[in-house]
Amino acid sequence: MDCPPVTYSIDTTGLDYPGRASVANRRALKQWTAMTGIPFVYQPSGGLVSVVFRTIKDEWAAYALGNVIVVDPRWIKESVLAHEWGHILGIPHTSAPDMLMTLGGFMDKVTPADAELARCPA
Ligand SMILES: [Zn+2]
To answer: How many Å lie between the centroid of ligand 1 and the Cα of residue 45?
Structure first.
């Protein structure tokens, strides 16, 4: 997919293991780049997409709202970040059992079916 580089910023302030969060996010983005060709570029602040961490007081591990990804610190995982980045790439939840974007599904990697639905974020 021919998208301009997608800039992002990640705020790990206050996390017990900030390095773990950065690595999980980088790995999630690596998956999307491998599957879609979309390039992601880290920017210390002011990126198009922001990744932040804060406790979420209900059942959700994470969510994406606009161009902001919010992850509960208890759920810092590559698969969770990859799923939320899927929303940033315009993909809604699917009922297919074998896609990363399945709500409550078992797939923890970006699949070709997920990648096919991705579009350039704006
Ligand atoms: Zn979701």
So the answer is: 25
